[in-house]
Write a structure and sequence with these properties.
The chain is an alpha/beta fold. 49% of the residues lie in helices and 17% in strands.
């Protein structure tokens, strides 16, 4: 029976992915900072504490999963959140924390499992990016940069994983119904920075529209399933119709046209 380890399974995409793989008969190591957040998962899978910003926590979770299941076939780097706002309004500590979780956490988990994959001669790493890993939205300087970093990290790592018989995949969700706009988002705003107020107002006015367009987290879980099991060398997997449409625009439009279209969409 194959085994998957998933980070950030307390809610949203991570939880939907854990349940999806469990329903397919896989062994699932569902990890999160506080296992009490997902006691309902315990009957179907192994729930483990894991803080992706602490290397000792990463190493222990990986070791515990291997001790229970014997090996790992797939690792999904899903843990993350969004720091949104004008760059002037975001503190240096907030920027560091954004990259500590979204980028360095992903790198740390990946580093921890590479020796196992090398010994096994195979394995799949699935990194959860976003459509904003390929283009940007207003006030996304820090979060979008972290997802661009994941895209570059994954592309470069592809060469190394090929050398050890492993694969890497990038899943790019679009508008997904989850807790991303609440517990998984930090919005930084300083009313004194009046020049940015039109951007803030535009983002706030679009929030309700985005919520109406959001698709269930299960569409991402299905994309992760495809990425983990299709056996191909495909690198990127858009998740959801909004992702497919937006990325098609990005691929076909020149920079100025795409930028103008984004501004128009937000009424800027």
């Amino acid at each position: 029976m194959p085994t998957i380890l998933i980070t950030g399974t307390s809610s949203g995409i991570g939880r939907a992915t854990a349940r999806h793989f469990a329903s397919k008969g896989w062994n699932v190591a569902a990890t999160m900072r506080n296992p009490n957040d997902a006691r309902d998962l315990a009957g179907d899978m192994l729930v483990l504490p894991l803080d992706v910003t602490v290397r000792e926590s990463i190493d222990k979770a990986v070791a515990d999963a291997v001790d229970v299941f014997g090996s790992l076939d797939v690792v999904v780097n899903n843990a993350g959140y969004a720091a949104i706002g004008a760059l002037e309004a975001i503190s240096a500590d907030q920027i560091k924390q954004q990259f500590a979780v979204n980028v360095f956490g992903t790198m740390g988990v990946t580093q921890a499992v590479l020796p196992l994959f090398r010994r096994q001669g195979g394995g799949v790493i699935v990194n959860i990016s976003s459509i904003v890993g390929r283009f940007t939205y207003p006030l996304g300087t820090v979060y979008d940069a972290s997802k661009f970093a994941i895209e570059g990290f994954s592309e470069a790592l592809r060469f190394e994983l090929e050398a050890i018989g492993a694969r890497i995949k990038i899943v790019e969700p679009g508008l997904i119904a989850s807790d991303f706009g609440t517990r998984s988002m930090q919005f930084a705003h300083d009313p004194a920075l009046r020049a940015y107020q039109p951007l803030v107002d535009a983002m706030r006015s679009m929030a309700a529209k985005f919520a109406e367009m959001a698709e269930p987290a299960e569409v991402v879980a299905e994309a992760v399933w495809c990425a983990a099991t299709d056996g191909t060398e495909t690198l990127r997997y858009p998740a959801g119709s909004a992702a497919h449409n937006a990325l098609a625009d990005r691929d076909t439009l020149d920079d100025l046209t795409f930028y103008a279209k984004t501004k128009d969409r937000f009424g800027l």
